Amino acid sequence: MPSDRREIRGALWRTAAGQRGYFTAAQALEAGYSYQAQRYHAQHGNWAVVDRAIYRFREFDLLPGTQDDDLVRWYLWSKGRAILSHTTALSVHELGTANPSRIHLTVPPGFRRKHDAVVLHRAELVQEEIEQRDGYRVTTPIRAIIECAAAQVDQDIVDSAVAEALERGLATRRRLLHTAQRSGARAELGIERALRAAS
Fold first, then answer.
1. What is the pLDDT of residues 63-91, one digit of tens each?
2. pTM for this one?
3. Burial of 65: CB neighbours in 10 Å, binned 0-12, 13-18, 19+
4. Does residue 24 contact residue 54 with C-beta atoms inside 8 Å?
5. Are residues 76 and 18 in the same domain?
6. CA-wise closest residue to 11 among 25, 24, 30
7. What's the total number of domains in the chain?
8. 100 and 153 share a domain?
9. Are residues 72 and 49 part of one domain?
10. What's the Cα-to-Cα distance from 12 to each of 5, 55, 69, rounded to whole Å?
């Protein structure tokens, strides 16, 4: 554990820089900040308190914000267990007209945390269904489309996402239909309708 103050700050800064300035109390502890030191920095305004045990370096507040800033926060809130999914993932991939008012996260079945700003979906995802972004994970474009169809999200949203995914080469008709068939009747019906609309 680094002992010099600059080394400690540098270690935490390197972690936070890959997370748009955010970090958890556990990450601060690992870098060398005791819980007492964490309270000091939060109380004196050196760190912005974002949520319970989640902070952000004040310097990052001066930078232009992006949608990704908030997404990193929710990834850390889940302690790295959540994957951004459904309409939130469509928005990340800039597919279609999805503009969710709440954050959609897919979490493991045993996940217990709750928050009013979050919609939780419980599932075990395989690595091929996940993309790593700067500070968070998100379902792939195909997975995002399929899970929206399975959840019976507004058909116009699914239609627009499918049309753009095909146009941008992010998916093929065959792959979408095959993946939907493996995901159940609701997903298959939603994708069939979207593919007809895109014809």
1. 766 667 889 999 999 999 999 999 999 99
2. 0.86
3. exposed
4. yes
5. no
6. 30
7. 2
8. yes
9. no
10. 11, 11, 18
